[in-house]
Amino acid sequence: MSSIFGSLSSTAAALEAQRRGLEVAGQNIANVNTAGYSRRTMILKERSATEPGQAGRGVEVSQILAVRDLFLETRVRQEQQALSRDQVVAEAMSVLEAQLGQPGLSVDGQLSAFFNSFSALAEDPASLTLRDATVRESERVAASFREMASRFDQSRRDADVSVRNTVDEINRLSADIAAMNARISGVGGVNNEAVIDSRNVLLGQLADLSDITVSDASGTMTVSLASGHTLVNGTHVVALEVEDEAGTGLARVLTDGQDITAELTGGRIGGWVQVRDRQMPAYSEMLDRLAFTFATEANAVHASGTDALGNPGGPLFSVSATEAGAATSLALSGAVATDARLIVAEGASANDAARAMAALRDGSLVDGSSTVSDYWGQIVYRIGGDTSAAERVQQGRQQVMNQLQQLREATSGVSLDEEAASLMRYQRAYEANARYFTVVNDVLEVLMGLVR
Amino acid sequence: MRVTFHEQHSGTNALQTAAQELSRAQRAVTTGKRVNVASDDPLGARKIVHERAELAALDAYQHSADTASSRLSAADTALSGLIELYTQALATATAGRGTTATPAAREALAASLRGTRAGVLTQVNAQFAGRPLFAGSASDGRAYDGAPGAWTYLGTADSVQLEVQRGRIVSVTFDGQTLMQGADAENALDALDGLATAIEVGDDAGVAAGMQAVERAMARATRAQGTLGADERGIADAVSQLSALRLASETRRSKAEDANLAEAITRLSEADTAYRAVLAAVSREERMSLLDYLR
Asked: Who's near B48: CB < 8 A, 6+ residues apart?
């Protein structure tokens, strides 16, 4: 049979347990808005009897656990990588398509103005005013190609800067995670959960930046890129490096000296690499093809005619020797720019060359199947279609992410209703235990009175 | 499933989506365009590029057709003037033929013919917008110049042609030498001068030959006017077709690019309602909790 002093002792333990319960509820309420926080739950354990006939020795705190679902944590991270990549692509594409300009007011508008200027010149080939107008429109159409190429190139450079910044951020997060691993392996008890929560937040941030896989099988957390290259192994960090690519100056991402740029397919860095290395070059290539075809065809017509001084026409535009870089290099011939009389209008008759130049608008020049305007339409369609698809994919991915986050919240999130109920429960339990303590104390007082 | 206080997160996303829809609907109403960026309708954007290029081409053809029409009209007037002058010349020459006319009368008739020749010279040197109409492709100066009895063609044998519609090409200047001389040994100006001289000296054979030359010149002018009339009708047809093509192209462009305002306003109203509904729903998520009852 337990002693009355034993009852005081077990009541004190029960009071402590209920106080801890209040503390856990308070901790949960305090962190209701903390990103990555997993709600804590307290496991109570009955203190079993140590003597025959004893009801028990009250209660004690067995564990304070963070409620997590590892499957959901992993799924959220995986989805985050894809969502971040799609967000980056959608954002970059939105910027690019805004730079395309309105249909009819961009490169296509300048092409039409160029052809129209030669059409007008055909009406009066000797007019110096019309020749000046033709020179100006030729300059403008070349400038519109250069400007568009510059915008495409700038978008690519912006993506490159983002790749470099993201690599720095990945290295910083990897170092922080390794530091967390060191703390987790060195600290036990409740504080561990807080560090694990913080590490999970960092893993979420890392998943936002790159496609990672996390393995915690042998007690040592390993974070690797999806390609298998290790970023963090316990407390050891394998930092990513950046090297400038010869020729382009674009960043190549290395780990242990190996170029893994093409393997970065997820997270924000995957999005930037996709925009920089796959999408932008494809659009630039189309723009270069259009510029090259337009310039070479226009030059051929110009060379076939005679200028106002009676000399055979020279090239109207200067352009690169191959398609690569044609849009950037396209410029009006210096000689024509300074003397409008060098514009060719005359061919076999007075205005044949001017009419032939104007008729280029209807020629299936690009790839033998598209007019120059229609090919610009293809570029617009391609960029618009890719932007639209990227936005749709990102919206769909966001829905999935929302669902997963709701599921995670359903498991690990803090419900203020629940915590309020816990507060009441532990408060009442504390009050009841305190009352019991008073009763035991009163009984002890009676007993002490007998002695007196 | 446990419901936590992080539902607001998804509510904020829904708010963002509704705000984007509202913004898109507002943009369609304020700009009057359903395609403001290519991603609004990629295929539509491509169609707009095509139709705008087509409209620009049609406008260029329309401009060429207007220019051609004006030039041909001016040339037509000049040719009518030539024919009238030739008719006058023939009447004058007929009066001076034979032996009935006195030397003074013949002299007066010769002077009249020389005046007619001056009129012919003016007509054949007619210009439009500062460019000669009957000097081939020569861009300045006069078609004919010289002195009585020695008129020289200064123009070229070709002509300026304009494309007034895809594949429809019309000449807007004419070879003055073909008009004034054709296969004859001398041009109409010299023939008129010769005719005046023949009347002056009473050379009936010369008068007859001169009248025949003027008649041939009139036939050439009449033929040229006929061809020109056909071209004018062709331009009128082209203009009519260009108008129809432009209307069709503009309709296609408008269908692809312009917003149906009634539809756009309805969408704006729907998007506004949806946005307000999401706002209300999200604000309700800031709901009371059990904590509010713990007093």
From this structure: A103, A104, B35, B253, B256, B257
Which stretches of A280-371 are DSSP H helices? 280-304, 326-329, 334-338, 352-359
Of the candidates A399, A39, A391, A401, the one whose C-alpha atom is nearest the C-alpha of residue A208 is A401
The answer to whether A431 touches A21, Cβ cutoff 8 Å, is: no
Q: Which ipTM was obtained for this model?
A: 0.82
Rounded to a whole number of angstroms, the CA Rg of chain A reads 37
Interface residue A49 vs chain B (CB under 8 A): no
pLDDT digits (tens, 9 = 90+) for A219-244: 678 999 988 999 999 999 999 999 99
* CB contact A23 to B (< 8 Å): no
Which of A55-59, B7-11, B201-205 has the least mean pLDDT?
B7-11
Q: Please give the structure tokens belonging to residue A360.
A: 């280029």
pLDDT at B11 over 80: no
Distance from CA of B50 to the nearest CA of A (A): 6
In terms of CA atoms, which chain A residue is nearest residue B8?
A406
State the nearest Cα–Cα gap between B288 and chain A, in angstroms.
9
**Cβ-Cβ contacts under 8 Å for A287 (sequence gap 6 or more):** A145, A148, A149, A152, A327, A379
Q: With 0-12 CB in 10 A as exposed, 13-18 as middle and 19+ as buried, what is A292?
A: buried
Distance CA A279, CA A383 (A): 9
Measure the CA dihedral A295/A299/A301/A305, to 10°. 150
CB atoms within 10 A of CB B35: 23
Q: Which residues of chain B are within 8 Å of residue A387 when distances are taken between CB atoms?
A: 37-39, 42
User: Smallest Cα–Cα separation from B156: which of A436, A223, A350?
Assistant: A350
**Other C-beta atoms lying within 10 Å of the C-beta of residue B89:** 28
pLDDT at A343 over 80: yes
Distance from CA of A350 to the nearest CA of B (A): 6
- Rounded to 5 degrees, what are φ and ψ at B152? -120, 135
Residues in chain A: 452
- Going by C-alpha positions, the residue among A354, A409, A402 that lies closest to residue A122 is A354
DSSP secondary structure of A3-32: -HHHHHHHHHHHHHHHHHHHHHHHHHHHTT
Contact list in A for residue B156 (CB cut-off 8 A) is: 350
Confirm or reject contact between A296 and chain B (CB < 8 A): no
